[in-house]
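To whoever is covering the structure queue this week,

Two jobs came back overnight. Logging them here so there's a record in the thread.

Job A:
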Amino acid sequence: MTREEVGKLLALCTGFDRRTVGAADVLAWHEAFTLKGVTSFADARQAVIEHYSESDDFIMPVHVIRRAKAIRAKRLANQDSAAVLPQGDVADRPTAWLEELRNRIDAAADGLVNENRLALTQRRPTGAVLAAPAGYLSERAKLIPGVASDKAQVFQRLRQASLAVDCDYCPSNRGQVCRNTVDGRELTREPAHETRLVKCGAIEPPAAPRQLPPGASTPPVISPSAVGE
């Protein structure tokens, strides 16, 4: 939310409580909203109106922040989860899938999903690509409960792709499932170690690769096209 929008919001508050608003007030409220991640003027405006429709307490940033977050949470809870799922070929690229999903969740919370429930009416700015997708399957399942019905299928495709190469993170050779480097057990929550998935081309290389065990070399980057459907 811009300072100009915060000024408009405080002007609205003035209509209810006759407060005096100055530059210091605008700056202080803007800092509070920025700290707590309140970016939608429309949600903040609705929060002010709802507050003074139900209470005669002098409104402060905390009241607006609480209500604005509740508005977003309610909007997202009522959203058809199928509309939030990333579309296209990103399902097989965990890093891109997570980034797209988070963008779409934000957009849905802002009310930016269009009527056909398949695309967004407005794409939010893309942030930095998420780091390596370790744990992405579990993250994918919990971000929006009930939308990861293809979790097992994606898991198996990634695991199958990883078996085409040796793992540089653990002692597993081609055809062998990656193992935990501490207890030697086969991985069950992840299809393979991230470096192996990058090596076989199943996922994109992360922005900040995980440190390898002593003596292990960084795997070469192989194009995703090297992995067949």
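Job B:
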Amino acid sequence: MTVMRGANAYARVGVESGVMSASPHQLIVMLFDGVQAAIRTARLHMQAGNVAEKGKAISKALDIVNMGLSAALDHERGGELAGRLEQLYAYVSRLLLRANLHDDERSLDEAAALLEEIGSAWREIGPRAGKLSMGEWSQLIDSYEQLLLQSQSMLELARRGDWTTLLQVRSCGLIDAERLQRLEAGVLLGRQERLRKAELLEQILALDAEIRTHLLARRDELVLLMRNSRRQRELDRAYRPAMDSSIVYRIDDRFGKGSP
């Protein structure tokens, strides 16, 4: 939810002042607080039999849900989650209408419970989400692009058999991957950014798979060399004690140097 989207949605439902100075997170929190206050007021008037005042309070709650919370959803960046929230807000609106038409306090309670569940989740993630900026999204995507370039470099080193340099680059890559993981933990990507990230990841994984193939081949080569070297040492240990000069001399005496 953008600052102006949240501010405009809040202004449309006419709740308290201080909107333009609030953060995107605070704007939505104010909407959740406002709708809960309206539902509590509607419940009190419903219990007291004040039909007109009950209707006004429920109308205000409906305005906050429809022209505030639902209108503030960003479907481009929110994707599937925004669609599910829109459906949930539509259901809450039906509950509020039912409560108004039939003096149904249970419908009011259900609407309040659903909104509180969403509001509580938003309060937890909101401070982090409120710090997001286009710069952070760009930085995250740039980091994935750098990781792609690094994987391309590692593959070229693997093809050339430059294992020492490859291991050095790989060590730096592990550090970069950890830093990328920390950065991604604080960034909420929009639809376009998610698609770009998925595209970059697909390329990186394909390169890493080919690098792994080269590394496994090199490992098998080294294992074979080690086995051959071990066999050579075992043969040396088996024959060296018997092949000293005295044994050779006795063999020569017995069979003769000219014997076939």
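Note for Job B: The domain at 134-243 is CATH 1.20.58.380 (Methane Monooxygenase Hydroxylase; Chain G, domain 1).

Please reply-all if you pick these up so we don't duplicate work.
Q.
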